[in-house]
Design goal:
This protein has 181 residues and is α/β, with parallel strands linked by helices. It contains three helices and nine strands. β6, α3 and β7 form a beta-alpha-beta unit. It starts with 9 loop residues before the first strand and ends in a 6-residue tail after the last strand.
């Protein structure tokens, strides 16, 4: 079984875009796949969210696996930093999704799954969303086991979305439609 394979306590990855480095720590009870999904999401979305951070509490009941924060419209005088990107890797309950989607309609959400079909998870997000309006993307991403092939000796993780040009390991994604799309 893939999750039985060993992963060092830390994994260092580099972005192929700019060489930026991320050090991930494998926590007790966390699967190797979970760590690799966070690494892949960081590489895939960092070009669009340069301040993307991993495993950071943001003052919410839920802690995102990955998050990018920005001041609210009008600046910090109008409130705390708000998530512009929120990434989850692995299992997430429909109740959690419903809460997040209700409270953060302007946040780009991504749900990474390890080598699974995406449509059932996209349907879960659509049900959690209901008829609520959204103003930001909602995606499900399939991280294939071949992502390990894209991890080079220096830690560079060469992954790309299958609908984008390049030579890295292709990652599939589904954009979830909503009522006002």
């Amino acid at each position: 079984m893939a999750s039985d394979l060993r992963l060092r306590r830390t994994l260092t990855v580099r972005s192929p875009v700019d060489g930026a480095k991320l050090v991930l720590t494998k926590n007790r009870g966390e699967s190797r796949e979970h760590v690799l999904m966070k690494a892949a999401l960081w590489v895939l979305y960092r070009p669009h969210f340069p301040d993307l951070r991993v495993e950071v509490r943001i003052g919410d009941a839920f802690k995102p696996d990955l998050v990018a924060l920005a001041p609210p419209p009008g600046g910090l005088a109008y409130g705390d930093l708000e998530p512009t990107f929120w990434g989850e890797a692995g299992k997430v309950t429909p109740k959690k999704w419903a809460s997040l989607l209700r409270r953060f309609p302007d946040t780009h959400f991504v749900w990474a799954r390890w080598n699974e079909r995406l449509q059932p998870h996209a349907a879960t997000l659509q049900r959690a969303l209901g008829s609520r309006p959204r103003r930001a993307a909602l995606e499900v991403v399939r991280i294939p086991p071949s992502v390990l092939v894209g991890l080079e000796a220096d830690g560079t993780l060469d992954v790309r979305f299958e609908d984008e040009p390049g030579n890295g390991i292709a990652v599939e994604r589904v954009r979830v439609a909503w009522g006002n799309a």
